[in-house]
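Sequence only, no structure available. Ideas?
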Amino acid sequence: MSVEQEQRTLRCLVAKVGLDGHDRGAHVISRALRDAGFEVIYSGLHRAPEEIVQATVQEDVDVLGISILSGAHDTLIPQILEGLQEYGALEDTLVVLGGIIPDEDRAPLKSEGVAEIFGPGASMNEMIEFIRENAPER
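Reply:
I predicted one. Tokens follow.
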């Protein structure tokens, strides 16, 4: 990580996609990122993939953290990644995923553009360090 990147405040969008109504984890993660010095925007519940894409582009975030527990990750996450690609934002946005993602679904999501997947019980420090080390330089 460059000195310039260390001095720059990373902007993160924490997003809840689809009909998933469980947002306690997203709130905990948002608070941890804020406490670590990140600027955090929270999408609120029940966002459509296109809404998340639009917010990512319009807010010019460095990191998109998607929280999903509904089991629809194999449908909704690719839609978000495709939308980011259409706007040319996938290369400039670190996409991380949190939630309950079966092992067999992880590799396909990563091959489509998810940088890392954090499951239940993941360490906040591990997540924060991953973001700091992998956020795109601007």
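The chain has a mean pLDDT of 92.
Hope that gets you unstuck.
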